[in-house]
Amino acid sequence: MPIKIIQIKTLQDNYAYLLVEESSTQAAIIDPGSAKPVIKALAAENLDLSHILLTHHHYDHSGGVSELKKHYPKAEIAIHKDDANHLAVSANRKLQEGEKIDFGNALIKILHLPCHTRGHVAFLVENALFTGDTLFTAGCGKFFEGSTTEMYENLKRLKTLPETTNIYCGHEYTLENLEYAHLADPANQTIIERLQRARLRQIDEEPLVPATLALELASNPFLRLNNNALQKQLKTTNELDTLVALYQIYYRETPSF
Ligand SMILES: [Zn+2]
Ligand SMILES: [Zn+2]
Questions:
Q1: What are 123's strand-pairing partners?
Q2: Could you confirm whether 112 is annotated as catalytic?
Q3: DSSP 8-state symbol, 21
Q4: How far is the CA of 235 from the centre of ligand 2 (A)?
């Protein structure tokens, strides 16, 4: 039975995701930046919470954890072992690369993607990938605790997933990311069309997340580092230099190697 995904807006522009495994009525929340909207969604669906899953330790992804734990004391808090000691509450489960979490009749697979934080993970469930602040729709997260080379390896790995994978990221940055993508790759028709559609949409009512990996591969410059037109525009000749050049456009900072 497929997993139902309920997308919840938290804080300013964060997304938390409530996963419901319908055969067992188990529910898991990914990245609860605040507790209130999550409690409301669980009550509306008449669900108990079995798992609190964190892509990384930052407060805008974990700020709701202690409040949720008070309401749902049986919920298991899971975070990568390298991020666990940054949490205000103690984790029940410290995750590692390749681990799988039993979730009713489904499995949640852990991909360790260190760079934004040391213990950043993505959660893969069926054809949904929850990327936190590593991969954004049309963009990429900041390299706060890692190097360009590490992010390069992460991006390379994510590109190998099936193209039908839906990317659910931690923030609604799609429109501004597409504006930067258009600067970096001005002749890219997919970016132009995606940008036009994004400008017309009411983000508050209609989220621009998720996007398929196929669409991201065609229009997210961070997944197109070997593209000739992009390299020509950025005056680079290899993928790592292209990644640095993109980071400078998006974040106006030079990352380290
Ligand atoms: Zn973050
Ligand atoms: Zn964040």
A1: 110, 130
A2: no
A3: E
A4: 31
- Residue 80 and residue 155: Cα distance in Å, rounded? 19
Residues with CB in 5 Å of ion ligand 2: 60, 133, 170
In the chain, the amino acid numbered 171 is H
In DSSP terms, 173 is beta-bridged to none
Q: Which candidate, 30, 72, 67, places its Cα nearest to that of 52?
A: 30
Token pair for residue 118? 């040391």
Q: What is the set of domains in the chain, with CATH numbers? A: 1-96 (3.60.15.10), 127-257 (3.60.15.10)
Contact 39, 64 (CB under 8 A): no
pLDDT at residue number 116: 98
Q: Which residues of the chain have pLDDT under 70?
A: 1, 202-204
Residues whose CB falls within 8 Å of the CB of residue 220, separated by 6 or more in sequence, listed in order: 135, 137, 138, 139, 140, 177, 181
Instruction: Note the helical H segments in the chain.
Output: 36-45, 59-62, 65-71, 81-84, 148-158, 174-184, 189-200, 213-219, 228-234, 239-251
Position 203 scores a pLDDT of: 59
Global pTM exceeds 0.90 = yes
